[in-house]
Structure formats: structure tokens, C-alpha cells
Amino acid sequence: MNRGRRFPWVVFLIIPIIVFLAIFFLIPYANMVYMSFLVKPETGAYLKVFTLGNYARALGDTFYWKVLRQTFWYSLVTTAVTLVAGYPLAYHIARAPKRWRGLFLIMLISPLLVSIIVRSFGWMILLGKVGIINTLVKRYGGPELPLMYNAFGVVVGLVHIYLPFMALSIAGALQTISPDIERAARSLGATPWRAFWRITWRLSLPGVFAGTLLVFVLAVSSYVIPILLGGNNVLVMPIVIVQMLLDAFNWPLGSALSMVLFGGTVALLWLYVKLMNQALRWTTR
Amino acid sequence: MASITLRDLTKRFDALVAVDRLNLEIQEGELITLLGPSGCGKTTTLRMIGGFESPNEGDIFFGERAVTWLQPELRNIGIVFQNYALFPHMTVRENVAFGLEMRREVGARVRQRVAAILSKVQLVGMESRYPHQLSGGQQQRVALARALVVNPAVLLLDEPLANLDAKLREEMRFYIRHLQREFGITTIYVTHDQAEAMVLADRIALMKDGRLQQLGSAEDIYRRPSNAWVAEFIGLSNLIRGTVAGRRDGALSVRTAAGVFSCAGEDAAGEVVICVRPESLRFGQEHPNRLRGVVRERVFLGNLLDYQIEGPDGLRLRVQADPSRVFAPGTSVDVSFSPADAWVMRAEAR
Amino acid sequence: MDHPVRRPQRNGWALSVVVGLLYVFLLTPIVIVILSAFNAGDYLRFPPQGFSLRWFVRFTESESFVRAFEFSLRLAVYVTLASTVLGTMGALFIVRYARRVRDTLRLLLIAPLQFPAILTGIALLIFFYATGIGTRGMRPLFIGHTLVTIPYVFLTVSTVLVTFDRSLEEAARSLGAGPFRAFWRITLPIIKGGIISGALFAFITSFDQFPISLLLISVGNTTLPIALFDYLRFSFEPTAAAVSTLSVLLSVGIVVVIQRLVGLESIYWGGPR
Q: What letter would DSSP give residue B261?
């Protein structure tokens, strides 16, 4: 018999936030899916008429496929570069003496807390035709380097934004690996490189995994960098979608394209997860 | 001050029964220990008495007052945790005064009472310190002072000495006992350390798997354990399995593989276990219960010699005797014990 | 193996060089922007043509920038208040009371971070129009920003709550404090570091937020990042640098405060497991 059970007033702690998230997060996303099946009229944003036409266009038109491919290409390149650059950063922080770690963390994290606009702006100053790098190069007689309004500028910008995420992910995993393990390998005769590759790298794979996943997902949805540093020469899905929504006022197609982007990303991730699990299984044999 | 009554107290965590129909009566002013191995339900019981867990079934009474569902802040209790739980952002004075503050006491009276209790626990001069500036023992005493200053009806202690080193623990045992006697508060003390329980308690409540195995004074439990598990938990024991063969001359006759022995105990029948403490086994034939064995091991403990004897049918006996006579390993010896020292009990724990 | 085990310091220097270059890479753009803000010259040239504050003056004269700055500030304050309260309440419930639904709830609260902000912005835009709320005024921006800042508060508060010693509260309860008083006098002072750093994260995130603002702004209600963005697409004046510098100073200041309070490590790695 459970008489006198006290009423769980505490549930009121969570109700406001759940209601808020349900109304302004879950429903809008569901609504967007719904929107992707509606018709775009001559005037106005949408009509409540069911159609599969948007998906037909999104998946049928080679233009959108090209943009999608490009988007994924940029994300892959960014992920790869941040992995190569992020690992040393992560290793350094994880192995840094406690006193210094805070300082390095601040250096790593503070760019994240500066607006993406400001950081893009900085790259524009550096990479532009009359920017700092080109001014220096030209002063010493070199040619004008096309560093901006192209793929190079966009990748540099993306790497700059997402490098801390990768580094922190990997550092988190590295922190759990005691340096004694490396020392043990060394004492058994392994060179530093082999000790790293066979032991540390493999043990840090979960962090690498998480980091690459994270950076890829973030890079796929980036808008500011491609627009500011790519100009009209770089077209990625987010740009196309925003144009569709704000300029062409075609919400159904915009929603469908968002779904396609989302779906494509999920598909690639699923593949990646499978591959990674396979790889992890090999390393722990 | 209040007496405490637990009636059919039960607490379940999903499939696990942590406390199983516990019945206990604690007298006013008594210090009772809840003793048992980890997982026996002693801490859960304490938390239910404090109001930090709600029982699934059963009742708790402070005196005549049913407090089963009452919130902790209304039960007028004092509690000392294993980690002391001193408020780290408050000074010693603020910590101790907190309970008084909750009772709307202010000003000079509070200062007085805080000063008085701090002098009682010998922490005068520490009022402005913060917990992290105190040693373990000092933090302990602040925790005690904080709990006692509000004159609670019931004092609850959850393994308060577990984090102190051995020497300090011994000192503090007597200290707590002394304080408790002085204040006369009904106290429940949870511990897994039997030595501690025996030093501190008026009575010991021995628990296993959520059930009360035995309730009694230290001597009661030691000399007359209610079952084999209790016998093994408290002190060293020799357990001999056997069957009751009847009563003879007022003593229970028990047939075992090592012989038929005359024992003491309540009326029992069927499969039983005899408990003989190592110090009750004597070399020689002076007592009626006799058997013959071979010394296998001998350890010098300073004031005692600790022997392992192998008796008939592979029975292993542990004997502790004074060093006046020494038997080398391999020697055949006679061992005997009196019926009064052979206590018959049930084999299974409750 | 015959060769002696080399001490880590030997190949440590190569790592240090690489890492040093990487940090330069990370910080240079920001430093450049700040330097340009003080550049006396008209164009963003290198080397700088003298020290000057004229771009900061230009900023204060630019009505649109000042209005955007003030708007972003006000918005960030409201958003911080809302997400701090909601996030803290959510963290309290999830860390302490939710047993069976804990993981689901946690996923839900962090979800806004997992979905691309631009998609969230799109979904909100469509939703606001469909429901007639529209995108006028601060309200839609407030909702969108709160959505993406709550997870930060939730994470930082959860971290301190998980390591918070419940027996402190129980001791307070035993001494006569009811649940609210125990929370107010004992729990809150001890976890306030987590709450404040979550709030500061929320503030910065809202102030610097771009994708959601892009989709939810309306005429006359621009946030500072959007104003900067529009400006940068068509002009290249150092005024933008001055505005950016002020923004950076704000962020840096906040980071320092956070580090002082709780240490950045605990926030990022100590996320609830």
C-alpha cells in the first residue's frame, strides 16, 4: 500500500522546457517535412496540396546533384584536413603539463567564441586580391595568388572554424590514454613512431571517430564561409536552399532540398559508421 | 528524546529487496548500532528513519508520532554522514548555526549555543575557519556539533568514522559514546565494523540481506548467536554441523561426525550447528566434550597462540590458548570444551 | 632491440613547432581583424598605415551598426535569462529525478545542437509563417536563439550537478530546511559557477549567432552579425573591423571570466555521460 506518496512536484522543472522544445523544435521540423510535399503556387509560398514534385526536382535535376556532390566534397576535404591538423593539437594538449593545459585550451576554444563573421572577415583580409598575403607576395615580385573566392579560400575558412571541434574531440579520447602505455611500448623496444601508430592512434580512434563525424556534419551545413569566401564561384547546398527560401520564395522545394541534404548526410554517415565499426574491430583483434 | 519503532519496514529497489519487513524497537536514550556487511540494508534503514527514502511498506514511529511519510525537515533529527557533509561555502560557525537559523533563532542566543557546543567538541577558536581548512577529525566534530546543537529527538550516524585513520577512529569511538551518554539522545549508528559496534552500542542489530538476524547486547550476540552466519560474522568461531539427538541432563545432545557433544541452547531439533569460540577450546581432557586431533599450524600472536587443529573426519578447529604450553605442528593433542561453551544454533541465516 | 630508448623531449620539439604554427593559424585572422580596426589608412592594407581610432568613431556614427549592436545586446540578455532558467531547471530534473527517461530527455535537450543551425532556422521560418506568428519584432529571434542556447546551459549545469554531493542537501534538510530553502542556501551557491558559465556561453552564442538570425530577421530588426555580413558582402571598410573588434573583446572577456569561474576543461570534457 503506497498511501501518502508525495506528489512529484519536481516534474514541473522539466515541463516548460519540454513544451518549448516540442512546440519550437519538434513541430517545426515535422512541419518542414510536411512542407516538402506541398505545391508551390504562382504567388505565395506554398499550397496545401500534396505532391511528390519537389522531390522529383530535387533528386532528378542534375544541377542539384552537382551541388550536393560539391557540398559533400567540401565537407570531406575539410574533415580530412582538420583531422591531420587537429591530431597534433589534441596530442599536445592532452600531454601538456596541467599548468599549461588551461592556457592552450583557451587558445583553442576562444576562436569558437568569436563570431563566424569576424573570423571570415579576417580571412578576407588575409587572402583577398589586395589582402595581406598578396600584398607581401607582390612586393617581392611574385604573382597574384588566387586565394579567395574559390575552393581554396572556402576550405581554409572551413578548416579554421572546425579545427577546434576536431582537436577537442580527439583530445578528450587521448586524455583517457595514460602516457605510461606509450612508455611501456617504448620499453619493449618500439620506436616512438611505432608506439604511437600501433598503440596510441588505435586507442584514440573513438575520439577520431567522434571528431570526424562531428566536423563532417557541421561542414555540410555551413553557409557563411562558402558565401563570404567563395563568392559566386562556390555553390553549396545551404546557399541554394537559402536562396530558394528567401529569394525564390519556394518553400516546398527548399524544404525538399533540406530533406535531401539531411538524408544524404545521414546515408553517408551510416556508411561511415559501418566502416568505422569494421575498422575498430580489426584494431582490437 | 524519543523512542523509535520500526514496524514491518520494507524497501524495494526494482527487484531487489533492500529492507525486508524489519521490526525494531529502540528505547529512549539508547545507542543502537545497525551492523552488517555492505548491502545488508542498514544504510537504507537509516535513510528511511531520516526521511530521505520512503518505505514501500511499514511504519516508523518516533515515540507515539508516526513519521513514516514526514519530510526530513519536520522530523527533528540530527544526522552525521560518512563524509561529514559540511557546507563548503560556510564557516564553521555558520555551519553549526544553520539548524538554529532554520528554527528562526537569531542573535545572541545563537552565538551562545554555537559557542557552547563548539567548546563541548573542543573546537573553540575555529569558528571562522572553512571546512577545507580543517583536518578530518575536526570536520567530524563540526558535523557532530552541527547535528547536536539543535537538540534533536533522534541522532543518526552513517559510518561517521570510516574516513578516519585507525588511531583517530578509536579515540572518536569513545568520544561519541561519551557525548551520546551526556546528551542522552536516542541514537542509531550504522557501521560494518564489528569492533566499533561492540564498543559503542547498548544493543546491536545485526542485519543481512535486509533482514534482522539478531538483536541484543554485544555479549548476547557473541555468546548466544542466533545462527551460523551471526556466529561467523562476530568474532572467530568454530562451527560443527550435527543433528540433535535429544536432551540429557538438561543439555542438548548433538551427534556430529566428530562425536556426540553436550551443548547449551534453546530447544532445537534436526540439523543444527554448534558454535565453539576458539578461546573455549582447551588442551587436555578437563571438559566433558572431548576429541582428539593433530596440530597443523601454530601462529604466535603475542598474548596468545593461535592453533589450527585437524580433528576427526577432517574437522578443522581453531584454538586460541595462552602461551604457557606450546604444541609443535604435527603433535597429537586432546581438546575439550564445556557444554556451556557449545552453543547450538540454526544453520541458515534468516 | 639495441638502440636506447629516446627521451620524449627529442621529438617533442617537432610537435611543438607544428602545434605552434597551428595556433598561429587559428589566431591570426582574429588578430588581423583587431589590428585593422586600429589602422589609420582607408583600406585594409598591410603594413598598417598608422594608429587611429577613427573606425571606432565611424562605428558610433553609423546608425545602423549602433542599432544592430544594441539590438543584439538586448536580445542576448533576454535569451540568456530564458535559457539559463530553462536549462538549469532541465538539468536539475534530468540529473536528479529522471531515471528511466534520462537518456531520452538528455538527447532531446541537446538535439538543437546536433541539427544544423541553418536547417533549424529554415524550419522555424516556415513554422512561424504557417502559424501566423510571423517574423516581425524580436520574438521569433528570441525563440530561435533560446532554442540553440539551452543546450549549453544544460551541459554546464549538468556537469556541476553530477559532481554535487547530495548529502549536503540532506544535511540541510535534516537541520530543518525545506526543499526550496535547502536548494537556495546550499545547492545554488555551490553550483552557481556552472550556471554562470552556462549563461555566459548562452550570451556569446546568441550575440554571435548567424544562421538562425539570417532567416528570422525582419526589416528594422537586425542583429550585429547580420549587419556585419551584409556590410562585408558589398564593402570592405575598416569600420567593420572596429565593430568586429568590439565583438571579439566581448567574447574574450567572457572566456576569461568562465576560465576563472570553472575552468574551461570541466565544461567541455565533463559533459554528462
A: E
pLDDT digits (tens, 9 = 90+) for B15-31: 899 999 999 999 999 99
Residue of B nearest to A4 (CA): B69
User: Which pLDDT score is estimated for C272?
Assistant: 30
B258-314: pLDDT as tens digits: 888 989 888 788 889 999 999 999 998 899 999 999 999 999 998 999 999 998 888
Q: For chain C, what's the residue count?
A: 273
The CATH code of the domain that includes A260 is 1.10.3720.10
Residue in A with minimal Cα distance to B71: A6
Nearest residue in A to C257, CA atom: A106
- CB atoms A164 and C26 under 8 Å: yes
pLDDT for residue C220 is more than 80: no
Residue A102 maps to a domain:
yes
**Beta carbons within 8 Å of B186's beta carbon, 6+ residues apart:** B1, B2, B3, B4, B26, B27, B28, B29, B30, B153, B154, B155
Range of the domain at A249: 62-283
**Using CA atoms, how far apart are residues B86 and B82, in angstroms rounded to an integer?**
11
Which residues on B lie below 8 Å from A9 (Cβ)? none
Domains and CATH numbers, chain C: 62-266 (1.10.3720.10)
Q: Please determine, for the modelled complex, whether the ipTM score is greater than 0.85.
A: no
Domains in chain A, number = 1
Torsion of CA A216, A218, A221, A225, to 10 degrees: -100
B155 to chain C: closest CA residue: C174
Task: Judge whether A37 lies within some domain.
Answer: no
CB C58 within 8 A of CB C242: yes
Chain B hits for C171, Cβ within 8 Å: 79, 81, 85-87, 146
Residue A240 covered by a domain? yes
For residue A129, what is its C-alpha cell?
Answer: 586580391
Contact between C208 and A13 using a beta-carbon 8 Å cutoff: no
Between residues 179 and 218 of chain C, which touch chain B (CB distance below 8 Å)?
Answer: 179, 181-182, 185-186, 189-190
Q: Which of C96, C168, C175 to mutate to test the interface with B (most CBs of B within 10 A)?
A: C175
**Is A188 part of a structural domain of the chain?**
yes
| Portion 132-191 of A in contact with C at CB < 8 A | 132, 135-136, 160, 163-164, 168, 172, 175, 186-187, 189
Question: CB–CB of B79/B73 below 8 Å?
Answer: no
When pLDDT is averaged across residues B81-108 and rounded to a whole number, the result is 92
